[in-house]
Amino acid sequence: MGKSKQKLSKINKFFVLVRIISDFITDILFPIKCLRCKKEGAFICKKCLKTIPKNSFQVCPVCEKAITLNGDLCVYCKKLGSSPLTRLFVVSDYKNKNLSKAIHLMKYSFVSEIATPLGELSVETMTKLGNFATPDIIIPVPLHNKRLRYRGFNQSELLAKTIATKLLPGINIKILANGLIRKEYTKPQMKIKDYKSRQKNIKNCFISNPLFEKEIAQKRILLVDDICTTGSTLNECAKELRKLNPKSISAIVLARQS
Ligand SMILES: [Zn+2]
Ligand SMILES: [Zn+2]
């Protein structure tokens, strides 16, 4: 090992140690409490997780009007052929205070642990509605490296991990965390108000990873993201992935924010 590498690994070890100590102190000073009932032990307890409603039906992701099975495109929007996504499954409702609080904690207060119950909620909703063709590969919507360093984790990847292990008991669905690469650093979509600017903000932000060309070809892909606003992000991802010839591209989000 070169001297500079040795030095780097020492610095890394130092930061890991600092993190362990600071986590320990934080746990003592600020015990983990449920965001709803304040009971100690989890960021959202099992009982309060149950208060988050599971969508009992899905709509076409383009017109958002026609009720379709699992969020497939309706006949009309399918004919238009403008959507690279064939299905968008929405787990719950962002208007639910506990859900929006949980998502906020995860994204802006860096509570990565909350991704697990939210992933479980996603699986429960998918199984409840049934008929959800099991994906061959799961691809989380990537963050730009800069944001990843800042947050320390990609929330979509954490959600994807729970979905991948729990959707089919005993089977681990493959996750390609680098199936897509985010090359541009953009403003969060939530901070942009109108549809056109959102589309412009995210346009050509992603590239599909040519390393996985063979792996993705003819496979059923499931994209995972936390929130969907206009759908521009997922559409951009799907548009890029389509270049690698998958069989189909579906997506799942915790909620859709209009
Ligand atoms: Zn609770
Ligand atoms: Zn439609």
Description of the structure:
The chain is of the alpha/beta class. The chain has helices at residues 3-29, 46-49, 75-80, 97-108, 115-129, 145-151, 155-166, 195-202, 213-216, 232-241; strands spanning 58-59, 67-68, 87-93, 137-140, 174-175, 180-182, 206-208, 220-228, 248-256. α5 crosses α7 (155-166). The longest helix is centred in the N-terminal third of the chain and has 27 residues, at 3-29. The radius of gyration is 19 Å and the shape is globular. The model has no long low-confidence stretch (mean pLDDT 91). Residues 34, 36-37, 39, 45, 47-48 line the site of one zinc ion.
* Broad CATH class: Alpha Beta
Strand order of the largest sheet: 3-9-8-4-5
Order of helices and strands: HHEEHEHHEHHEEHEHEHE
Q: Give the number of DSSP strands.
A: 9
Total of DSSP H or I helical runs spanning 4+ residues: 10
Helix fraction? 40-55%
Number of domains: 1
- The gyration radius over C-alpha positions equals 19 Å
Residue windows where pLDDT falls under 50 for at least 5 positions: none
Tell me, briefly, the overall form.
Answer: globular
Give the quaternary arrangement of the chains.
single chain
Looking at the overall shape, the CATH architecture is: 3-Layer(aba) Sandwich
Mean pLDDT: 91
Bound molecules: zinc ion
